[in-house]
Amino acid sequence: MKRKNEDQSDFVANGKPKKRAFTDQEVKRNFRTGLFDRKVLKQYTDEYAESQPYKHGVIANLINAQLLRNVRDEIRQNLHFTPKETDIYKIHQSGDLANLDGLDDASLGLLPSLLTLRDALYSSAFRHYISTVAGAGPLSGKKTDMAINVYTPGCHLLCHDDVIGSRRVSYILYLTDPDVAWKPEWGGALRLYPAEIMEDEKGDNTK
């Protein structure tokens, strides 16, 4: 998605999309209260720096709870998912949500909360936050990917390195039922495995 960093999409009362610039304060209201406090930012930055086997961070309750409920409702009611399968995954996936602005007005009118969530995640305020935590350097927001994956019985995602082109940050936002506490035995947790150098039968080293 290519757009000026300050340009964000919003909705007026009649559901019609219009372009305007979000202030940092407007953006921050879409996240958990207190997330942008310096003490909290330092906590996540320190945790990221000490994480193993690969640098990663976990932020619980990232998004405003009511916004996330609205997003779940819009997804369940208005999005279509296509079965996809490769050598490493079997899932049901939505279309490209980073480019929601390309939808017609009627379709956009059905997804105001999802559009708000997208613009919050790719806002300059949150990009700066993540850049600080990860030490990733400036994140332009000009090249973004966003899709929703649904895992039904039999679906899976195998081990992979998540290295794709110029990607600098990868994220997962879990949209579990807010009224049903997720149980570990249901699966779905992110697992990170260290890479090891192994010598093959020819004496060559491979990762």
UniProtKB/TrEMBL annotation:
Q: Which residues form the signal peptide?
A: none
UniProt entry keywords in alphabetical sequence: Dioxygenase, Oxidoreductase
User: What residues does the Prolyl 4-hydroxylase alpha subunit domain cover?
Assistant: 43-207
Required co-factor(s) are:
L-ascorbate
Could you tell me which Pfam families the record lists for this protein? 2OG-FeII_Oxy_4 (PF13661)
Q: What is this protein called?
A: Component of NuA3 histone acetyltransferase complex
Q: Which organism is it from?
A: Cryomyces antarcticus
Gene label: NUA3_1
